[in-house]
Specification:
By secondary structure, this protein is an alpha+beta fold. The chain is about 50% helix and about 10% strand.
Length: about 425
Protein backbone atom coordinates (compact mmCIF):
# COMPACT_ATOMS: atom_id res chain seq x y z
CA UNK A 1 0.00 0.00 0.00
CA UNK A 2 1.37 3.42 -0.90
CA UNK A 3 -0.05 6.89 -0.59
CA UNK A 4 -2.64 5.74 1.98
CA UNK A 5 -1.98 8.58 4.39
CA UNK A 6 -0.42 12.02 4.52
CA UNK A 7 1.56 13.88 7.15
CA UNK A 8 2.14 16.98 5.05
CA UNK A 9 1.43 19.23 8.03
CA UNK A 10 4.33 17.83 10.10
CA UNK A 11 6.65 20.76 10.98
CA UNK A 12 9.82 18.71 10.46
CA UNK A 13 8.76 17.87 6.90
CA UNK A 14 8.44 21.57 6.06
CA UNK A 15 11.98 22.25 7.33
CA UNK A 16 13.80 24.02 4.48
CA UNK A 17 16.98 22.09 5.16
CA UNK A 18 15.23 18.75 4.63
CA UNK A 19 13.38 19.97 1.55
CA UNK A 20 16.64 21.24 0.06
CA UNK A 21 18.20 17.83 0.70
CA UNK A 22 15.27 16.08 -0.99
CA UNK A 23 15.65 18.39 -4.01
CA UNK A 24 19.41 17.76 -4.24
CA UNK A 25 19.06 13.96 -4.17
CA UNK A 26 15.87 13.39 -6.17
CA UNK A 27 17.39 13.86 -9.63
CA UNK A 28 18.11 11.82 -12.74
CA UNK A 29 15.57 9.14 -11.88
CA UNK A 30 16.50 8.86 -8.18
CA UNK A 31 14.10 9.35 -5.27
CA UNK A 32 14.64 10.38 -1.65
CA UNK A 33 12.10 9.85 1.14
CA UNK A 34 12.18 10.26 4.92
CA UNK A 35 12.05 6.90 6.69
CA UNK A 36 11.57 5.28 10.06
CA UNK A 37 11.24 7.01 13.40
CA UNK A 38 10.18 10.45 12.18
CA UNK A 39 7.23 8.95 10.27
CA UNK A 40 6.34 6.56 13.09
CA UNK A 41 6.42 9.22 15.80
CA UNK A 42 4.39 11.67 13.74
CA UNK A 43 1.62 9.11 13.24
CA UNK A 44 1.67 8.38 16.99
CA UNK A 45 1.67 12.04 17.99
CA UNK A 46 5.12 11.78 19.59
CA UNK A 47 8.05 14.22 19.34
CA UNK A 48 10.43 13.88 16.41
CA UNK A 49 14.09 14.42 17.22
CA UNK A 50 15.90 13.14 14.14
CA UNK A 51 14.98 12.64 10.50
CA UNK A 52 16.60 9.88 8.46
CA UNK A 53 16.45 9.72 4.68
CA UNK A 54 16.41 6.74 2.33
CA UNK A 55 17.31 7.09 -1.33
CA UNK A 56 17.81 5.10 -4.50
CA UNK A 57 21.02 7.05 -5.17
CA UNK A 58 24.27 5.21 -4.49
CA UNK A 59 26.44 6.51 -1.61
CA UNK A 60 29.03 8.09 -3.92
CA UNK A 61 26.24 9.81 -5.84
CA UNK A 62 24.75 11.09 -2.57
CA UNK A 63 28.12 12.56 -1.58
CA UNK A 64 28.64 14.19 -4.97
CA UNK A 65 25.18 15.72 -5.13
CA UNK A 66 25.38 16.92 -1.54
CA UNK A 67 28.70 18.65 -2.17
CA UNK A 68 27.41 20.20 -5.39
CA UNK A 69 24.47 21.66 -3.45
CA UNK A 70 26.81 23.25 -0.91
CA UNK A 71 26.20 20.67 1.82
CA UNK A 72 28.87 18.75 3.74
CA UNK A 73 28.86 14.96 3.12
CA UNK A 74 30.48 12.82 5.83
CA UNK A 75 31.08 9.10 5.05
CA UNK A 76 29.89 7.73 8.38
CA UNK A 77 28.85 4.24 7.26
CA UNK A 78 29.70 3.59 3.64
CA UNK A 79 29.71 -0.21 4.14
CA UNK A 80 26.02 0.09 5.01
CA UNK A 81 25.34 2.75 2.43
CA UNK A 82 25.09 5.63 4.89
CA UNK A 83 26.35 9.17 4.35
CA UNK A 84 25.69 11.89 6.91
CA UNK A 85 24.83 15.07 5.04
CA UNK A 86 25.16 18.30 7.00
CA UNK A 87 22.79 21.01 5.75
CA UNK A 88 23.27 24.43 7.35
CA UNK A 89 24.76 22.78 10.43
CA UNK A 90 22.05 20.11 10.76
CA UNK A 91 22.99 16.45 10.12
CA UNK A 92 20.78 14.02 8.21
CA UNK A 93 21.63 10.33 7.84
CA UNK A 94 21.10 9.35 4.21
CA UNK A 95 21.11 5.62 3.42
CA UNK A 96 20.87 3.93 0.06
CA UNK A 97 18.14 1.28 -0.30
CA UNK A 98 19.41 -2.19 0.56
CA UNK A 99 18.61 -5.86 0.17
CA UNK A 100 19.95 -8.64 2.42
CA UNK A 101 21.80 -11.33 0.49
CA UNK A 102 23.28 -13.20 3.50
CA UNK A 103 22.56 -13.15 7.26
CA UNK A 104 24.45 -14.59 10.22
CA UNK A 105 22.24 -13.89 13.22
CA UNK A 106 24.40 -10.92 14.21
CA UNK A 107 24.73 -8.93 10.98
CA UNK A 108 23.77 -9.10 7.33
CA UNK A 109 25.63 -8.87 4.04
CA UNK A 110 23.72 -6.37 1.93
CA UNK A 111 23.71 -5.00 -1.57
CA UNK A 112 22.34 -1.70 -2.71
CA UNK A 113 19.06 -1.64 -4.57
CA UNK A 114 16.31 0.52 -5.99
CA UNK A 115 13.26 -1.39 -4.79
CA UNK A 116 11.40 0.39 -1.99
CA UNK A 117 9.29 -2.66 -1.20
CA UNK A 118 12.40 -4.86 -0.82
CA UNK A 119 14.02 -2.23 1.42
CA UNK A 120 10.91 -2.18 3.61
CA UNK A 121 10.77 -5.96 3.94
CA UNK A 122 14.36 -6.19 5.22
CA UNK A 123 13.56 -3.99 8.22
CA UNK A 124 12.51 -5.28 11.65
CA UNK A 125 9.07 -3.93 12.59
CA UNK A 126 6.23 -2.61 10.49
CA UNK A 127 6.21 0.71 12.36
CA UNK A 128 9.86 1.28 11.38
CA UNK A 129 9.35 0.56 7.67
CA UNK A 130 7.31 3.65 6.77
CA UNK A 131 8.45 6.28 4.27
CA UNK A 132 7.21 9.75 3.44
CA UNK A 133 7.98 11.73 0.31
CA UNK A 134 8.57 15.46 0.16
CA UNK A 135 4.87 16.22 -0.38
CA UNK A 136 3.85 14.39 2.83
CA UNK A 137 2.56 11.20 1.21
CA UNK A 138 3.15 8.14 3.41
CA UNK A 139 4.34 5.00 1.62
CA UNK A 140 3.46 1.82 3.51
CA UNK A 141 4.40 -1.57 2.07
CA UNK A 142 3.97 -3.66 5.26
CA UNK A 143 0.89 -2.41 7.14
CA UNK A 144 2.87 -0.13 9.40
CA UNK A 145 0.36 2.74 9.48
CA UNK A 146 -2.31 0.54 11.02
CA UNK A 147 0.16 -0.83 13.56
CA UNK A 148 1.30 2.66 14.52
CA UNK A 149 -2.25 3.80 15.12
CA UNK A 150 -2.94 0.64 17.17
CA UNK A 151 0.40 1.00 18.99
CA UNK A 152 1.27 -2.56 18.05
CA UNK A 153 4.89 -3.67 17.61
CA UNK A 154 4.82 -6.35 14.93
CA UNK A 155 7.62 -8.06 13.03
CA UNK A 156 7.59 -7.83 9.24
CA UNK A 157 6.78 -11.23 7.77
CA UNK A 158 7.57 -14.34 9.83
CA UNK A 159 8.96 -13.21 13.20
CA UNK A 160 11.41 -16.14 13.31
CA UNK A 161 12.92 -15.08 10.00
CA UNK A 162 13.45 -11.50 11.17
CA UNK A 163 14.96 -12.68 14.46
CA UNK A 164 17.35 -15.14 12.83
CA UNK A 165 18.69 -12.32 10.68
CA UNK A 166 19.78 -10.53 13.86
CA UNK A 167 19.09 -11.96 17.31
CA UNK A 168 19.28 -8.50 18.83
CA UNK A 169 15.77 -8.06 17.45
CA UNK A 170 14.53 -10.10 20.42
CA UNK A 171 15.51 -7.30 22.76
CA UNK A 172 14.42 -4.65 20.27
CA UNK A 173 10.96 -6.22 20.21
CA UNK A 174 10.60 -5.71 23.95
CA UNK A 175 12.27 -2.31 23.92
CA UNK A 176 9.98 -1.00 21.20
CA UNK A 177 6.94 -2.44 22.94
CA UNK A 178 7.99 -0.66 26.16
CA UNK A 179 8.44 2.59 24.25
CA UNK A 180 5.54 2.50 21.78
CA UNK A 181 3.30 -0.50 22.45
CA UNK A 182 -0.10 -0.67 24.08
CA UNK A 183 -1.50 -3.66 25.94
CA UNK A 184 0.06 -7.09 25.63
CA UNK A 185 2.93 -7.73 23.21
CA UNK A 186 2.06 -9.14 19.79
CA UNK A 187 1.50 -12.90 20.44
CA UNK A 188 3.31 -14.11 17.33
CA UNK A 189 6.31 -11.91 18.02
CA UNK A 190 6.43 -12.92 21.69
CA UNK A 191 6.25 -16.62 20.87
CA UNK A 192 9.06 -16.27 18.35
CA UNK A 193 11.27 -14.42 20.84
CA UNK A 194 10.80 -17.22 23.34
CA UNK A 195 11.56 -19.93 20.79
CA UNK A 196 14.66 -18.15 19.52
CA UNK A 197 15.97 -16.96 22.91
CA UNK A 198 19.13 -19.09 22.71
CA UNK A 199 20.28 -16.77 19.94
CA UNK A 200 20.93 -14.07 22.54
CA UNK A 201 24.04 -16.03 23.54
CA UNK A 202 25.52 -15.25 20.12
CA UNK A 203 25.41 -11.49 20.71
CA UNK A 204 28.13 -9.34 22.21
CA UNK A 205 27.68 -7.98 25.71
CA UNK A 206 27.97 -4.46 24.33
CA UNK A 207 25.00 -4.86 21.98
CA UNK A 208 22.86 -6.45 24.69
CA UNK A 209 23.80 -3.68 27.11
CA UNK A 210 22.94 -0.94 24.63
CA UNK A 211 19.44 -2.30 24.13
CA UNK A 212 18.90 -3.01 27.83
CA UNK A 213 19.66 0.53 28.97
CA UNK A 214 17.21 1.90 26.42
CA UNK A 215 14.56 -0.58 27.51
CA UNK A 216 14.68 0.21 31.25
CA UNK A 217 14.12 3.93 30.63
CA UNK A 218 11.09 3.43 28.34
CA UNK A 219 7.63 4.45 29.65
CA UNK A 220 6.21 0.91 29.56
CA UNK A 221 9.31 -0.79 30.93
CA UNK A 222 7.78 -2.24 34.16
CA UNK A 223 5.02 -4.17 32.39
CA UNK A 224 7.41 -5.27 29.65
CA UNK A 225 10.02 -6.40 32.19
CA UNK A 226 7.38 -8.52 33.89
CA UNK A 227 6.54 -10.23 30.60
CA UNK A 228 10.23 -10.83 29.95
CA UNK A 229 10.63 -12.26 33.46
CA UNK A 230 7.66 -14.58 33.06
CA UNK A 231 9.27 -15.90 29.86
CA UNK A 232 12.70 -16.34 31.46
CA UNK A 233 14.25 -13.76 29.15
CA UNK A 234 14.94 -11.03 31.71
CA UNK A 235 17.01 -13.33 33.90
CA UNK A 236 18.94 -14.42 30.82
CA UNK A 237 19.84 -10.79 30.10
CA UNK A 238 20.61 -9.66 33.66
CA UNK A 239 22.13 -12.90 34.95
CA UNK A 240 20.19 -12.53 38.19
CA UNK A 241 16.75 -12.10 39.70
CA UNK A 242 15.05 -8.76 39.20
CA UNK A 243 13.18 -6.53 41.63
CA UNK A 244 10.11 -6.03 39.46
CA UNK A 245 8.06 -4.37 42.20
CA UNK A 246 10.81 -1.91 43.12
CA UNK A 247 11.42 -1.11 39.47
CA UNK A 248 7.72 -0.41 38.95
CA UNK A 249 7.61 1.83 42.03
CA UNK A 250 10.56 3.88 40.82
CA UNK A 251 9.04 4.30 37.35
CA UNK A 252 5.76 5.49 38.87
CA UNK A 253 7.53 7.91 41.18
CA UNK A 254 9.65 9.22 38.33
CA UNK A 255 6.54 9.88 36.25
CA UNK A 256 4.28 11.28 38.96
CA UNK A 257 6.67 12.99 41.36
CA UNK A 258 9.80 13.72 39.31
CA UNK A 259 11.95 11.74 41.72
CA UNK A 260 15.25 12.19 39.96
CA UNK A 261 15.21 11.08 36.34
CA UNK A 262 15.31 13.94 33.88
CA UNK A 263 15.88 12.06 30.63
CA UNK A 264 17.66 9.24 28.89
CA UNK A 265 20.86 9.80 30.87
CA UNK A 266 19.16 8.51 34.04
CA UNK A 267 19.01 4.88 32.96
CA UNK A 268 21.64 3.81 35.59
CA UNK A 269 19.09 4.65 38.30
CA UNK A 270 16.39 2.54 36.65
CA UNK A 271 18.82 -0.34 36.13
CA UNK A 272 19.91 -0.14 39.77
CA UNK A 273 16.28 -0.34 40.92
CA UNK A 274 15.73 -3.38 38.70
CA UNK A 275 18.84 -5.46 39.34
CA UNK A 276 21.30 -3.97 41.87
CA UNK A 277 20.42 -5.18 45.36
CA UNK A 278 23.80 -4.41 47.01
CA UNK A 279 26.92 -2.51 46.02
CA UNK A 280 28.54 -5.81 45.07
CA UNK A 281 25.90 -6.40 42.40
CA UNK A 282 26.82 -3.28 40.47
CA UNK A 283 30.26 -4.41 39.17
CA UNK A 284 28.83 -7.79 38.13
CA UNK A 285 26.02 -6.17 36.16
CA UNK A 286 28.33 -3.54 34.68
CA UNK A 287 30.70 -6.26 33.45
CA UNK A 288 27.87 -8.39 32.08
CA UNK A 289 26.39 -5.50 30.08
CA UNK A 290 29.68 -3.66 29.45
CA UNK A 291 28.39 -0.50 31.10
CA UNK A 292 30.56 2.64 31.31
CA UNK A 293 32.42 3.37 34.53
CA UNK A 294 30.30 6.45 35.21
CA UNK A 295 27.17 4.29 35.27
CA UNK A 296 28.84 1.77 37.59
CA UNK A 297 29.89 4.54 39.98
CA UNK A 298 26.40 6.01 40.02
CA UNK A 299 24.73 2.67 40.73
CA UNK A 300 27.18 1.77 43.50
CA UNK A 301 26.88 5.17 45.15
CA UNK A 302 23.10 5.30 44.88
CA UNK A 303 22.64 1.88 46.48
CA UNK A 304 25.14 2.70 49.22
CA UNK A 305 23.58 6.07 50.08
CA UNK A 306 20.04 4.68 50.03
CA UNK A 307 20.91 2.83 53.24
CA UNK A 308 21.07 6.20 55.04
CA UNK A 309 17.41 6.77 54.20
CA UNK A 310 14.71 5.06 56.23
CA UNK A 311 13.12 5.23 59.68
CA UNK A 312 14.35 8.29 61.53
CA UNK A 313 15.38 10.11 58.35
CA UNK A 314 14.48 13.67 59.30
CA UNK A 315 15.29 17.14 58.00
CA UNK A 316 18.61 17.19 59.80
CA UNK A 317 19.76 13.92 58.28
CA UNK A 318 18.45 14.97 54.89
CA UNK A 319 20.57 18.12 54.97
CA UNK A 320 23.64 16.11 55.97
CA UNK A 321 23.07 13.64 53.13
CA UNK A 322 22.56 16.40 50.57
CA UNK A 323 25.78 18.10 51.64
CA UNK A 324 27.87 14.93 51.56
CA UNK A 325 26.38 13.36 48.46
CA UNK A 326 25.59 16.27 46.17
CA UNK A 327 22.21 16.85 44.55
CA UNK A 328 22.21 14.03 41.96
CA UNK A 329 23.31 11.33 44.41
CA UNK A 330 20.96 12.70 47.07
CA UNK A 331 18.00 12.30 44.71
CA UNK A 332 19.23 8.87 43.59
CA UNK A 333 19.39 7.75 47.23
CA UNK A 334 15.84 8.90 47.89
CA UNK A 335 14.57 7.30 44.69
CA UNK A 336 16.17 3.92 45.40
CA UNK A 337 15.08 4.04 49.05
CA UNK A 338 11.51 4.62 47.89
CA UNK A 339 11.79 1.83 45.31
CA UNK A 340 12.92 -0.60 48.02
CA UNK A 341 10.26 0.67 50.46
CA UNK A 342 12.69 2.22 52.89
CA UNK A 343 10.41 5.24 52.45
CA UNK A 344 6.67 4.58 52.34
CA UNK A 345 5.29 8.03 53.14
CA UNK A 346 4.90 9.82 49.81
CA UNK A 347 4.36 13.14 51.56
CA UNK A 348 7.68 12.78 53.34
CA UNK A 349 9.37 11.76 50.11
CA UNK A 350 8.06 14.81 48.27
CA UNK A 351 9.21 17.00 51.16
CA UNK A 352 12.73 15.57 51.08
CA UNK A 353 12.96 15.74 47.29
CA UNK A 354 12.23 19.46 47.44
CA UNK A 355 15.09 20.11 49.87
CA UNK A 356 17.62 21.23 47.19
CA UNK A 357 15.16 23.91 46.07
CA UNK A 358 14.74 25.44 49.53
CA UNK A 359 18.13 24.88 51.16
CA UNK A 360 21.78 24.92 50.12
CA UNK A 361 24.53 24.06 52.62
CA UNK A 362 26.99 26.71 51.57
CA UNK A 363 30.73 26.42 52.02
CA UNK A 364 32.64 25.14 55.03
CA UNK A 365 33.41 28.30 57.07
CA UNK A 366 37.07 27.38 57.67
CA UNK A 367 39.96 26.71 55.30
CA UNK A 368 43.44 25.27 55.57
CA UNK A 369 45.00 28.72 55.89
CA UNK A 370 43.02 29.29 59.10
CA UNK A 371 44.73 26.32 60.76
CA UNK A 372 48.12 27.29 59.35
CA UNK A 373 47.64 30.70 60.97
CA UNK A 374 47.06 28.89 64.28
CA UNK A 375 50.46 27.29 64.00
CA UNK A 376 49.70 23.89 62.52
CA UNK A 377 52.51 22.58 60.34
CA UNK A 378 51.82 22.05 56.67
CA UNK A 379 51.00 18.46 55.85
CA UNK A 380 48.54 15.80 56.98
CA UNK A 381 47.61 17.64 60.18
CA UNK A 382 45.94 20.43 58.22
CA UNK A 383 43.86 18.00 56.21
CA UNK A 384 42.88 16.16 59.39
CA UNK A 385 41.89 19.44 61.02
CA UNK A 386 39.65 20.30 58.07
CA UNK A 387 38.02 16.88 58.18
CA UNK A 388 37.33 17.24 61.89
CA UNK A 389 35.94 20.74 61.41
CA UNK A 390 33.66 19.56 58.60
CA UNK A 391 32.35 16.69 60.73
CA UNK A 392 31.57 19.07 63.59
CA UNK A 393 29.88 21.52 61.20
CA UNK A 394 27.64 18.77 59.84
CA UNK A 395 26.86 17.48 63.35
CA UNK A 396 25.78 21.01 64.33
CA UNK A 397 23.35 21.04 61.38
CA UNK A 398 25.64 23.59 59.71
CA UNK A 399 25.19 26.07 62.54
CA UNK A 400 28.77 26.47 63.86
CA UNK A 401 30.63 29.57 62.75
CA UNK A 402 34.26 29.94 61.73
CA UNK A 403 35.30 30.93 65.24
CA UNK A 404 33.29 28.07 66.73
CA UNK A 405 35.06 25.55 64.54
CA UNK A 406 38.53 26.97 65.11
CA UNK A 407 37.92 26.82 68.84
CA UNK A 408 36.51 23.31 68.77
CA UNK A 409 39.28 21.65 66.73
CA UNK A 410 42.45 20.95 68.77
CA UNK A 411 45.83 21.91 67.40
CA UNK A 412 46.71 18.21 66.93
CA UNK A 413 43.36 16.82 65.82
CA UNK A 414 42.51 13.14 65.84
CA UNK A 415 39.73 11.13 64.35
CA UNK A 416 38.61 10.56 60.84
CA UNK A 417 35.88 11.74 58.62
CA UNK A 418 32.94 9.32 58.39
CA UNK A 419 32.11 7.87 55.01
CA UNK A 420 29.16 9.66 53.41
Amino acid sequence: MTGAASIAAAPWLADRRLQRLFAALARDGDEAWAVGGAVRNTLMGLPVNDVDVATTALPEVVSARAAAAGFKPVPTGLDHGTVTVVVDGHPFEVTTLREDIETHGRHAVVRFGRDWRADAHRRDFTMNALYVSADGTVHDFVGGVEDCLARRVRFIGRPEDRIREDYLRILRFFRFHAAYGHGDPDPAGLAACIRERAGLDRLSAERIGQETVKLVAAPGAPATARVMSDCGLLQRVLGSAADLAGFARLTTLARDMVVAPQGKADWPLFLAALAVWTEADAPRLAERLRLPNAALDRMERGVHLARAVGPGFDDRRARALLYRAGEESYRDALALAAARRRITDEGRLAHDLALPFRWQPGKLPVAGRDFLARGLARGPSVGEALRRAEALWIESDFALSRDDLLGAVPESPAGSRPRP
